[in-house]
Amino acid sequence: MDKIFITTSSGNIGTELVKILKTLGVEFSAGFNQNQPTEVKNSTKLNFDKYESLVDAFTGHQTLYLLLPDNERVVEWAKSAIKAAKQSGIKQIVRSSGINADSNSTYEVFKTLGIIENLVIESGLDYTIVRPNSFFQNFVTYHSYSIKSGGLYLPQGNGKVSYIDVKDVALTVATILNNPKKHIGKTYTLTGSTAYDTNEIAKIISKAIDKHIIYVSVPDSDYVETMKKYHLPQFNIDTLLSLYQADRAGFNSIVTDTFKLLTDKEPNSFETFIKDKKGLMI
């Protein structure tokens, strides 16, 4: 079996992916940015600005799971990582991208993802692309304080989004990495089983935590000003805003059965997820 290198093992997907790969007995090494995963024997702190360190880390592996931090230099880092992969002997890249990735998109988030996908595809290496939609976990990670205060304030209008559980994304990626050659040249769009608008999301959360949660669709300008107060970098503000604009326009409402086809399991529902996480929002 090919040995795998995971570039980001301590984030949302990476944390769950590491657990599943260990359960499957898949041999892998892990890169991390800040928090070293204690459960991984072979882990390396990665610096995407230091090319030779990437070559050293990737050497001895045949498959690269490429997940990059959200940063204004992400395209440069992708170029460097792909070049290092080729030099170090990587044969296949499994790229964690995002729904609707398209280098020609007018939405910044899709455009950046699409540019990186093109770099992977044009690298000459075998590849697999995984495009998940937004995560259930966002409501716990980013919006729990707002929910505790009684509301969701987002510039999403009435657009529907087919959110997916990070654990389902990680299981799909693990399935691919367990037999990567089977998935060469494939692009997979991952979604949950249902698309919800944020009014529906608020109702589901309200029922789960037994507290009335309102949804207010705020203007883009108000959202930007709030993010600036939290000192979020401009790149991240622009990326998030473009994602919400795409949500609002209905671009992220597509529902696929890809998760079930690849794993033979039903995706987790938002209702079940929220019930399990309600203690974090009350």
Walkthrough of the structure:
- Helix 3 (74-88) packs parallel to helix 4 and helix 9 (220-229) packs antiparallel against helix 10.
- The protein has helices at 12-24, 51-58, 74-88, 108-121, 138-141, 144-148, 166-178, 198-209, 220-229, 234-248, 258-263, 270-277; strands at residues 4-6, 28-32, 43-45, 63-66, 92-96, 126-132, 151-154, 187-190, 214-217.
- 44% of the residues lie in helices and 14% in strands.
- The protein starts with a strand and ends in a 5-residue tail after the last helix.
- The chain is built from twelve helices and nine strands.
- The chain is an alpha/beta fold.
- The model has no long low-confidence stretch (mean pLDDT 95).
- It has a seven-stranded parallel beta sheet with strand order 3-2-1-4-5-6-8, with helices on both faces.
Topology (SSEs and partners):
Layout: E1 4-6, H1 12-24, E2 28-32, E3 43-45, H2 51-58, E4 63-66, H3 74-88, E5 92-96, H4 108-121, E6 126-132, H5 138-141, H6 144-148, E7 151-154, H7 166-178, E8 187-190, H8 198-209, E9 214-217, H9 220-229, H10 234-248, H11 258-263, H12 270-277
Parallel strand pairs: 1-2, 1-4, 2-3, 4-5, 5-6, 6-8, 7-9
Write a compact overview of the structure shown.
The protein has 282 residues and is α/β, with parallel strands linked by helices.
